[in-house]
Write a sequence for this structure.
């Protein structure tokens, strides 16, 4: 890796303001998904060491929560600036550990910085209420206080952005945090911590630990110091955390798997729709929780949409994310490749028509696939594929499209394209999900509440709703 600032690649953990190795000396190897080369090693911390990090966050909470919101906000904005200044190095680290093309990696770094900036600006606007009292001579005040020490568990698909949007909201609210990044992609989280230290985040306010994920998850749910856990990852682990958090009634935010439909109605701008489909399906090689998993196209425009999509999919370039012009990097690992192949084989077996791709793999690289004649009973329609596999299902009526779109236990994002305003209102109301993109698929940004319903979890990130997740309401009656 060629970094202008090599110290951004930290092979250590960070808590209480110090960079540390594990007492046991044990480490976890991190591999580049493009070529399986060793990127570096991070410590495998014991549960006792993780508990020490949590205690450090508890000590730091005392003064951090009393700091002025303006000061907390200034530190977050300075942190955002540092991310932007170091975006080339951060993108290099991200592409090397995660695989995504460099241009996307830089986009992710800027997106991460936007959360630090937005919550930095929002910190001083943490208003409470006064409520007219029920009896004469009394006053009712409502104040919002930081919930306390928080745990964060983040995934490998957006390793720096998913953590930035948690830590930004938590620190703006006056909480402190211990974060556990995904073991496949810890280096961007550690670089984020280094830049936080430089931006003036006090010791103990933001801490990053790596190690056995189940052991750290257990420490987060069983340690009574942790008052809230924000998790982004699979529905399976989200459900496990909910069960385990019963011990301390730890508050949770869960941003889990999705199964997003995108519906193209016959009155849509088809060129715009195809651009939106391409961006939302193939970003990060199809490894995003708001990726289109089911494409529904109205029969009267079906052939035209499939033809345009075929041309667009054929223009994608597969390769190492460092190489110029590459638009599809490797999948994260072999189990991701196997899932892609299972969905591919099942669709072919059940009569889907192959238009692009071949379902073969070269290491973690696969060619983007486009298929027509998908059916709602195929595996891809029920399980998140998390790979560059796009299968279109034709439909006849609006009612049929809505029925298919909602026929899933998941409810994260949904998208549709239509120019008919009555239809836009009807379909928006009918879709069962936390986020709807109408004539647009780039829905995620710091100013809007990101999150799902049903098996996609609960809680929101970004916007004032994201800040509320880290605050508790205290009502005061003045007699
Ligand atoms: P994915 O399938 O996208 O890898 P996971 O839910 O397995 O999703 O991973 C998301 C995050 O959850 C990662 O940081 C991972 O290490 C962590 N994780 C996995 N298993 C557990 C667990 N039992 N307890 C807590 N965290 C876990």
């Amino acid at each position: 890796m060629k970094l202008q600032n090599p110290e951004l690649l930290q092979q250590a953990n960070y808590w209480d303001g110090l960079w540390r190795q594990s007492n046991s000396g044990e480490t976890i190897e991190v591999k580049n998904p493009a070529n399986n080369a060793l990127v570096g090693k991070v410590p495998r911390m014991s549960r006792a060491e993780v508990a020490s990090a949590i205690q450090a966050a508890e000590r730091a909470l005392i003064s951090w929560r009393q700091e002025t919101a303006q000061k907390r906000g200034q530190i977050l904005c300075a942190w955002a600036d540092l991310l932007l200044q170091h975006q080339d190095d951060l993108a290099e680290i991200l592409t090397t550990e995660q695989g995504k093309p460099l241009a996307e990696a830089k986009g992710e770094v800027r997106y991460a910085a936007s959360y630090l900036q937005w919550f930095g600006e929002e910190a001083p606007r943490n208003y409470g209420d006064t409520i007219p009292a029920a009896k004469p001579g009394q006053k009712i005040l409502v104040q919002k206080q930081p919930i306390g020490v928080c745990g964060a568990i983040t995934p490998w698909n957006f390793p720096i952005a998913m953590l930035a949007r948690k830590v930004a909201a938590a620190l703006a609210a006056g909480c402190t945090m211990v974060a556990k990044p995904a073991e496949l992609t810890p280096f961007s989280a550690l670089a984020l911590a280094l830049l936080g230290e430089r931006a003036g985040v006090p010791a103990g306010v933001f801490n990053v630990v790596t190690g056995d994920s189940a052991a750290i998850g257990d420490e987060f749910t069983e340690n009574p110091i942790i008052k809230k856990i924000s998790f982004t990852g699979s529905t399976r682990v989200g459900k496990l955390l909910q069960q385990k958090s019963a011990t301390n009634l730890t508050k949770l935010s869960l941003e889990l798997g999705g199964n997003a439909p995108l519906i193209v109605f016959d009155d849509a701008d088809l060129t715009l729709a195809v651009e939106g489909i391409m961006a939302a399906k193939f970003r990060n090689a199809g490894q995003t929780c708001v990726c289109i998993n089911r494409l529904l196209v109205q029969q009267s425009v079906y052939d035209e949409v499939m033809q345009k999509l075929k041309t667009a999919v054929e223009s994608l370039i597969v390769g190492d994310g460092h190489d110029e012009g590459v638009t599809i990097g490797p999948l994260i690992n072999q189990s991701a490749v196997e899932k892609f192949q299972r969905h591919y084989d099942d669709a072919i077996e059940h009569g889907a028509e192959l238009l692009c791709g071949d379902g073969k793999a070269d290491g973690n690289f696969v060619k983007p696939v486009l298929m027509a004649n998908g059916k709602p009973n195929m595996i891809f329609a029920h399980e998140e594929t998390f790979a560059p596999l796009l299968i279109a299902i034709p439909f006849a009526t609006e009612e049929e499209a809505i029925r298919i779109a909602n026929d899933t236990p998941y409810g994260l994002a949904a998208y549709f394209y239509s120019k008919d305003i009555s239809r836009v209102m009807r379909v928006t109301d009918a879709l069962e999900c936390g986020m709807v993109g109408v004539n647009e698929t780039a829905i995620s940004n710091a100013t809007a509440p990101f999150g799902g319903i049903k098996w996609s979890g609960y809680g929101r990130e970004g916007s004032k709703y994201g800040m509320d997740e880290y605050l508790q309401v205290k009502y005061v009656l003045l007699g």
User: Anything to note?
Assistant: DSSP finds 14 helices and 24 strands in the chain. The mean pLDDT is 98.
